[in-house]
């Protein structure tokens, strides 16, 4: 049995899948190289049987091929953060119980010593790959990913996401945001977070679209890529939009001091590139209204805000078509159930703040080797997000984290974000 993601890719052999600094790669390239990586990981075994494989590779074709190779070999992918120092990397590697580390050569100096201390297999992406063999059948009920949550207290927890979870999350977003074959998205997000892995990369590849990847965010590089005018989607966090605005303002300020036609033309190409896109999305943090309004004045786009987290994927989204509200995260996505409850676990009426609880096929399986935390995270089958929201009209508005942003004053719960 092929994983659904692989079955989808087989429909698009000659189409471009990934465009990255290494070059342009088709779906056939991705299938071939990921099959070779899977063969290397198996090392003559029949199936990795959910062995954890930690990997640290910059955004690009090799990262994606390695992720797919881990899955096709029957392993659980544990993506590492590019900017974490050794203690954080070692924590994720040891806590997940990874038996294999795959690294880009630029990270060999920091990761090989960890592999040696813990007696782990160490593979470089520059190693010669073997010819692909017949790969194991992977049931979609199997574990696919362990993503480590940042959390507000204590050590990060490993959220376990199955292939079925991935499929449910992706199909929900493809349906809501109407992904098509001809879409092209620019990927500027970290690939150890759900936002970059699911919303951008996996949605694009599931749809047969093109994912254009940059190794790390740089405002000038991103503006130049937008200016080419062939992108259809862009997804980022508020900080990225703020940095793009700052770069835009710097050019505008320069124009005020000296009339530079080439700079003026560059600004116009940026505007044109934005207007050619069909959708721009913001998430992972609250979007300040001033950023929303400034970006709209530059790009013509009223950013679509959505709400999600590592354990649930995306749960709420403003509409693709129709009116969007500043500060609103919209309504539940397809096949996702959301409710707001009080401290007794009872539903609250519209206009009354409550904790967001989520149910659906996209909700994660468990916290890795932490049954107590897993049990505590659920209430009657609903995942307890720890986030507070209020229903205003037909839309949800996030108020903040229950433990951090919600203050009791005069018997009422007030968001510290409302100031």
Structural description of this entry:
Helix content is 35%, strand content 26%. Strand 20 (382-392) and strand 21 (395-401) form a beta hairpin. The chain has a domain at 4-139 and 188-210: Rossmann fold, CATH 3.40.50. Helix 4 (86-96) packs across helix 5, helix 6 (163-177) packs across helix 7 and helix 8 (219-227) packs across helix 9 (238-257). By secondary structure, it is α/β, with parallel strands linked by helices.
Strand order of the largest sheet: 2-1-10-9-11-12-13-14-15
- Number of helical stretches of at least 4 residues: 12
Mind telling me which CATH architecture of one domain this is?
Answer: 3-Layer(aba) Sandwich
Fill in the CATH topology of one domain: Rossmann fold
Tell me the span between the first and last alpha carbons.
Answer: 54 Å
Shape descriptor reads globular
What topology emerges from the helices and strands here?
Elements: H1 4-9, E1 16-20, E2 23-26, H2 27-42, E3 52-56, H3 61-72, E4 76-79, H4 86-96, E5 100-103, H5 108-118, E6 121-124, E7 143-148, E8 158-162, H6 163-177, E9 184-187, H7 194-207, E10 210-213, H8 219-227, E11 233-236, H9 238-257, H10 261-275, E12 279-282, H11 289-299, E13 304-309, E14 313-317, E15 331-332, E16 336-341, E17 354-360, E18 366-367, H12 371-377, E19 378-379, E20 382-392, E21 395-401, E22 406-409, E23 412-415
Helix pairs in contact: 2-3, 4-5, 6-7, 8-9, 8-10, 9-11
């Amino acid at each position: 049995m092929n994983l659904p993601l692989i079955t989808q890719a087989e429909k698009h052999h000659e189409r471009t899948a990934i465009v990255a600094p290494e070059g342009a790669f088709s779906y056939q390239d991705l299938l071939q190289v990921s099959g070779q990586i899977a063969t290397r990981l198996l090392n003559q075994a029949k199936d990795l049987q959910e062995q954890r494989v930690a990997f640290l590779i910059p955004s690009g074709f090799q990262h994606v091929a390695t992720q797919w190779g881990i899955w096709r070999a029957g392993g659980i992918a544990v993506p590492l953060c590019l900017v974490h120092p050794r203690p954080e990397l070692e924590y994720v590697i040891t806590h997940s119980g990874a038996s294999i580390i795959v690294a880009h050569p630029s990270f060999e100096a920091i990761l090989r010593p960890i592999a040696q201390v813990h007696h782990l297999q160490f593979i470089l992406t520059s190693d010669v790959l073997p010819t692909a063999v017949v790969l194991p059948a992977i049931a979609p009920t199997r574990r696919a990913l362990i993503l480590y949550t940042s959390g507000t207290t204590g050590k990060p927890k490993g959220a376990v996401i199955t292939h079925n979870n991935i499929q449910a999350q992706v199909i929900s977003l493809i349906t809501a945001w109407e992904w098509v074959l001809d879409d092209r998205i620019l990927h500027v997000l970290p690939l150890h977070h759900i936002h970059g892995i699911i919303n951008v990369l996996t949605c694009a590849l599931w749809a047969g679209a093109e994912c254009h990847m940059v190794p790390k965010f740089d405002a000038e590089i991103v503006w130049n890529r937008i200016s080419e005018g062939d992108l259809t989607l862009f997804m980022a966090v508020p900080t990225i939009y703020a940095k793009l605005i700052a770069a835009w303002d710097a050019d505008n300020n320069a124009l005020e001091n000296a009339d530079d036609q080439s700079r003026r033309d560059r600004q116009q190409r940026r505007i044109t590139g934005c207007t050619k896109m069909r959708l721009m999305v913001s998430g992972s943090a609250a979007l300040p209204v001033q950023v929303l309004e400034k970006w709209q004045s530059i790009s013509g786009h009223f950013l679509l805000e959505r709400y999600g987290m590592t354990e649930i994927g995306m749960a709420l989204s403003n509409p693709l078509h129709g009116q969007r509200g500043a500060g609103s995260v919209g309504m539940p996505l397809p096949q996702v159930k959301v409710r707001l409850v009080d401290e007794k676990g009872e539903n609250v009426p519209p206009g009354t703040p409550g904790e967001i609880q989520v149910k659906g096929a996209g909700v994660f399986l468990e916290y890795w080797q932490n049954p107590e935390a897993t049990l505590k995270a659920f209430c009657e089958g609903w995942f307890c997000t720890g986030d507070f929201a209020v229903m205003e009209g037909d839309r949800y508005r996030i108020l903040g984290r229950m433990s951090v942003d919600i203050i009791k004053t005069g018997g009422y719960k007030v968001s510290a974000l409302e100031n």
